[in-house]
Amino acid sequence: MKSKYALRFVALGYLALLLGIPVALVFVNAFQDGIAAAWDAVTTPEAQHAFYLTLVMVAVAVPLNTIFGVLAALAIVRQRFRGRALLNALIDLPFAVSPVVVGLALLLVYGSRDGWVGQWFADQGIQIIFSTPGMILATMFVSLPFVVRETIPVLREIGTEQEQAAATLGAGPLQTFFRVTLPAIRWGVAYGVVLTTARALGEFGALSIVSGKLSGETETATLFVENRFQRFDETGAYAASVVLALMALVTLLAMTVIKPKEGQT
Amino acid sequence: MSIVVDSVSKRFGDFVALDDVSLEVRDGSLTALLGPSGGGKSTLLRVIAGLEAPDSGTVSIGGEDATQQPPQRRNVGFVFQHYAAFKHMTVAKNVAFGLTIRKRSTEEIDERVDELLKLVHLDGFAHRYPSQLSGGQRQRMALARALAVQPRVLLLDEPFGALDATVRKELRAWLRRLHDEVHVTTVFVTHDQEEAMEVAEQIVVLNDGKIEQVGSPKELYEQPANDFVMGFVGPVSELSGRWVRPHDVEIKREPADGAQEAMIDRIVHLGFEVRVELSLGDGERTWVQITKSHAQELELTAGDIVWLRVAVPV
Lengths: 265, 314
Prior knowledge:
The structure holds 2 protein chains of 2 kinds. Chain A has helices at residues 2-30, 35-41, 45-78, 84-90, 93-96, 99-110, 118-123, 132-142, 145-158, 161-168, 173-202, 205-210, 221-230, 234-258. By secondary structure, chain A is mainly alpha-helical. Chain B has helices spanning 41-49, 71-74, 91-101, 106-119, 135-148, 165-182, 193-199, 217-222, 227-233, 292-298; strands at residues 3-12, 15-25, 30-34, 56-61, 64-65, 76-79, 153-157, 185-190, 202-207, 210-215, 237-239, 242-244, 249-252, 260-270, 273-280, 285-291, 305-310. The longest helix of chain B is centred in the middle third of the chain and has 18 residues, at 165-182.
């Protein structure tokens, strides 16, 4: 009996020290000058634009990475081709490489002055670095692995028999995918989407390089928090952090709500 | 409809699964593909369904060449050993799947699903999920799902292999009766000779990717084409270097023409059947199967000297 409580104490204590207390303090500090001050801090035009831009990042990166993620998982699990192992390993690259390095790498490729293809894009009038396209690329890069990694094990688990059964019953490849495969892997994909969203919301390092941090233009919510913090606007920094934390919380709650009860499927 | 398989070969890397196999399955018949695992029987079934493409040879169904057709165009019903139930769909949706794909009207689908669930004795289970069914029920659901689209042929891959012995026996008898009702050309794969003998009208024995023999259960048992078929479809015992059925050996208390002397080692009583284990003069061992009443008549005991003779000339 004692060891049961000891285990709980260690687990909860660890979580409290590392997660609970710091996050709680953010909330406390956000409202140190009252709710009105916090509200004002996150409703300035710069703040609103920053949140808007963060949502744009999520709105583009999450669907694209979800589609790519499911396709990549299908290719890795269901097909045998040269370079399959390499693809599998490459997908983990964003986990391994620091976001700052990702930002610098994107600069080398898309920089408008001396980037590898940036010059060409600049000639077409498309600016990628220090602009939204580059920021979306950075966000996609860092949030790429989640859907693939969450989908691969469920795809392995369901096997191919259900798909073969669908084929013998007259379903073409697309019908089989949408009616049989996708419903069977949906919880894996959904969890991947939640993690991708959370990662996209919180991206900072790569964005701080490729965005140029122009307040009110290329500043996302995380960059806005840093900006406020550097300018000794503590209320602004903490209040914006609280909004970011709430966005992440909503994502996680959405997952818990849509997830089926144990054993339903 | 009839199935004609013509010179089909299939390899998986170095492994030859099917080696120039030709076979005809009559319209409306019930055929078993029998053989040891790795013999090629599942591969042959999957080639007929279009789930595997043969390296060479052709498959026609109902007189129409189907070799190049993908499985969804062949209109075959396929039942998998592990059911392949659509876990996220109810029993009714599972059975309706093929009809939904074919865009039939809701009324027609509902009617057909009802009818099929009755046929497989699952009426009342329409709104359950596969996870709430037993193995036998899941397999009957899979069968209803395969039959829903009125397939040209019904193919079953070790359909009872994952079920326990009692359920397996029940479903065998039931499949036999179902075939009498539905009359669809049916081919099923099994490694169990008793299952093949009990259910099928025609048995195809496959070994090492080749067909050893095709025939009725009686033909296979009584006139096996070779030692492999003889050994696979029934018990064998060896007498003077020859394979015989152990019930085709006569035990005599007195020396007789062409009879061989032997000593009884052990007598095993298996109910109706009595198994007599013997040693021959040259130290070889053999066994003979006789009925209980015959054993009593002969008053056999361990240690007795008897004479053995093949009763039926083979």
